[in-house]
Fold these 2 entries.
Entry 1:
Amino acid sequence: MNSARRTLLVFLGSVIAAGGAVTAAAVARGAGVLSSAPLFFWLIAALLVIAEFFPIYVPRREQQVDEITVSSSFAFALLIGFGAAPTILVQAIASIAADVARRKPWWKVLFNAGTYAVSLGAAGFMYAALGGTTRVTTVSLAATLAAGAVFVLLNVTLVSVGVWLAQGVSLPAYVLRELGFEAYTMPVLVALSPVIVVAAERSPLLVLLAAAPAAAVHWGTKLAVANAQLVARLQGSLDEMTELNRLKDDFVAVVSHELRTPLTSIQGYIKTLVQLWTELDDDQRTSFLEAADRQSDRLRRLIEQLLVVSRLESHVEPLVVTRISLTRLLAHVVDELRPRAHGHTFDIRIPPEVAVLDTDEGKLHQILSNLMENGLKYSPADTRVTVKVEPSLHGVVLTVQDEGPGIPQDQHDKVFERFYQVDQSTTRRVGGTGLGLYICRRMADAIGARLWLARSDATGSEFSLFVPERPPEAVEEPLSGAPRLAQSMTASV
């Protein structure tokens, strides 16, 4: 157990213990009050409990929603009329009952009850010290406001320290933010308590009138929060549509360029052959035909990428699981890429114990082909593309390394996005549609695998792919987190 967690547990235990002690003292002192309490005491107590079950949600900045309850009004009404001891008992029962109904963890239930007890105990001490009485007078009004300030300050401080220890937020900033919010709400709630006391002294039924505004505020704020959330969702949808339109425009521009380039080359070579056939020797004709063939192959690969994306987006890519040989699969990928290697070398390392795997061969072939082709495209000539296979818990990890210039740190999270390219300028050195890594990620999700950028710096990039021993029948979510690699020996192939 680290020191931060130990400190948090000590703090929570201290608040719970202090709250328990205050509540025990309240039981000893408040039992007699409860036994002879009049009808309006129980009516106010019931409203306090109900208010705890129906909090008011207040929307704040950055789509944040805070929770307040009007139970403070009824709690301070009991404090004025009957003292701190019975108030602490009723508030503790209400808090525990509401938190248990919301299925909060036991430590939160006890911490909230302890915070209420300590804060109300301090507020009751302040009320008595300032001469507050059981009747509503000028003195008791001032004492009520002072007691409310003590309650808010202590309650916010205890909660803020707990959040600070648990989440590491800035304590002064959090305290000031919460106190600023309470400064708008708590005076109104505390100021309502003398009204409740006066109404209860006249007739218990008048106390119900105090609940009517609270109920109206509850339902009004509930609708306001719902509307605010709806507006936020609509704004999010609008932002998403705007981004999709931008991506569509970028995609059309990129694809138009990528399609036009090989088509123009093919057309140029063919026209030259048609016009100058008799003037060209056999070597020149062969060279022109090979160039047209290379450009047509480039065009074919581009069209295949677009078709694959279309099938992935339409969820019509079936999963075909077979037992495959990783050695044979990687040999096929290398054979396909070798004509485009331009002096690059391939280093394939597969330990014998992980040479066989149950997965979708076609999808794994496409993932590895795209990753290795990326290494060829973005690395200088005569460098090496390395593929390592290592055993891992319940699967294997395949790592593709290149010796390119690397990817900027601020773009590591974006490389798997659809149509995204690190160099988006019109004069970029390497062409493409920005779909290769997107297809790899989607294919990996389809076979229950996990693909991530393990490293990228000035010495090159390293992509890692965890492939399970056997993919699940239906994959809904990609695996979370990079798996821990088991230490193993690798052998060059």
Note: The domain at 244-313 is CATH 1.10.287.130 (Helix Hairpins).
Entry 2:
Amino acid sequence: MKKHNVYGIGNALVDIEIEVEPQFLDKANIDKGVMTLVDQDRQTELLEQIRGLQHSRSCGGSAANTIIAVSQFGGSSFYSCKVANDESGDFYYTDLVENGVKTNLGSERENGDTGKCMVFITPDADRTMNTFLGITSNFSNLELVESEITNSEYLYIEGYLVTSPTGKSAAIQAKKIAEESGVKTSITFSDPGMVTHFKEGLDEMIGEGVDMLFCNESEALGFTGKDNVAEAAKELKKIAKAFAITLGPKGAYLFDGEKEIDVITGQVKAVDTNGAGDLFAGAFLYSITHGHSFGEAGRLACAASSKLVTQFGARLQKNQATDLLKNLF
């Protein structure tokens, strides 16, 4: 039996969630609905503009949210990432460990600035991200722990790593280690901007293919250049043995390697969609590493995401995850 269900790699970012009106985004010259990389000066400017507005923070980054979800549902997970020896880095490490995740991080870390992601939530439940990567932009092979990768059932790769040369290299190396050890590989496209501006890099990270791919409808269409999910799915079968395409309020479209599965989700009133895709992947990976079918995994993942979007924040509480499991399995 493997030590970990999922070993994840990705950017370590302190997520700062702020509720704003669309006019705020216009006034601050922020592109709505996408993730935009910014430098430290720009983020400092934005932090000044949100002073006094309601906000919260948590250890985050796309893959971190997924790996924490695996732990919350009762799985074993490990996360390799990079934070600095600063207050934000201390906060990140403590929050990660308190959520039951094993990590390469320790008390001795490099000097620098821990990355931060400002997540602007508008009344339409859309999330807009401005991200200063800080020290996580230097995530590299040095942060990989080979013995933990080989002792995991799945490797999970965050697509955002494609924006950093060292991050992309680490993703490729981690995938190589996993494949040579018989560990299944999975990747998420992370954001429509990644498939639009970094497709060549994603192709490098995917290599000859992955065992499991996670993406949303926009990412699937953007990556394949197709006009509908059915046609996109045909193309994705060339690079992934199995995949899950999230469809927002419509549910999810799954391929388990043999057949397509449609998962329909109940309608809810969304207030914050931040982290929904990350949670979907975490719930899904937990399920398929605990004896559940793709269909069952899809139902849990959709139920979890549907619950998450009705509240603020990128993660469920552990008791909410436990209740979902009791209700579905």
Note: The longest helix spans residues 165-180.
